[in-house]
Request: fold
Amino acid sequence: MRVQTREAIRSCKMQDLSKLENEALARIADAGDEAALEAARVDLLGKKGSISEALKTLGTMTPDERKAKGPIINGMRDRVTAALAARKGALGDVALEAKLKAERVDVTLPVRPEMQGRIHPVSQILDEATAIFADMGFAIAEGPDIETDDNNFTKLNIPPEHPARQMHDTFYLKAKADGTRHLLRTHTSPVQVRTMLAQKPPIRIIVPGRVYRMDSDQTHTPMFHQIEGLVIDENSHMGHLKWILEEFCRALFEVPKVEMRFRPSHFPFTEPSAEVDIRCDRSGGEVKLGQGNDWLEILGCGMVHPKVIEMCGHDPAKYQGFAWGMGLDRLAMLKYGAPDLRAFFEGDMRWLKHYGFAALDMPSLAGGLSR
Reply:
């Protein structure tokens, strides 16, 4: 619609105003979508629109002209405004109806199969171990993956010449200006150090987390998971340690009885130290726990070395304690029958569907760990 000049509108006759209104209403009715309707609104009621220009002429009219044409022009504006609103509502209803038709779902159709998420065996075994130790009264302690050499080695009584400190075993970060180097922790034991430095005994914690070592084969990966335990008080001894480990293995492997043996070993941070084996049966291509004549190593443990207690700020003449550590990945392999540790980190959905666990089956001692 061509915008008329103010002088032309002022001089126009009543039939011209009627024609302007009819054309405006027709254009509104013909608007097929909201964009066309908005264009019509701007041409009619915008700052320079036809009806807006007609309204502006009222200020230049004589009182008699204003009295005659004012109600006509204002009425025209009101009717056009109402027509715009009505048409906008109608277009909105049409758009909504089209959207509802496009998004309609036939509830009688069968549900399409979706990939079900599964809990990774390492996450499952961690939840199971945590549930067992929590029932025994242990708290969970955590620490950073990037550690200082002091926390990872020195305060754990690991001497400078120990092979574990060498670059072929440990991931070292770039040296700082003062020559010190941080590293990716090789075990979760630095969290034991941090806990002893921050708390006074009695201490009763478990420490789950990722650790890093330069090793990779069927039973080793550069990154793996450990869980360690630490008890520091005035009266703990190896008998307490043995009972905790026996109860843990019995609950974790869900067998009525386990038989364990403690073999003398050596760790810089414990004295005496022991490797722990569990009786099993390897016949038939699988490992059955709690029976048979074979033995399977599962963890290392011992009484915390007095030097470690002293370096962490406590009196070894007053306090003593014990600690143990085990690989969560290997426990998962042993319990769930996975033959290759590398498959744990490959992200194969077929493998996870076979070895994984339902997301809502939270392990508990009362309801069963691995249902």
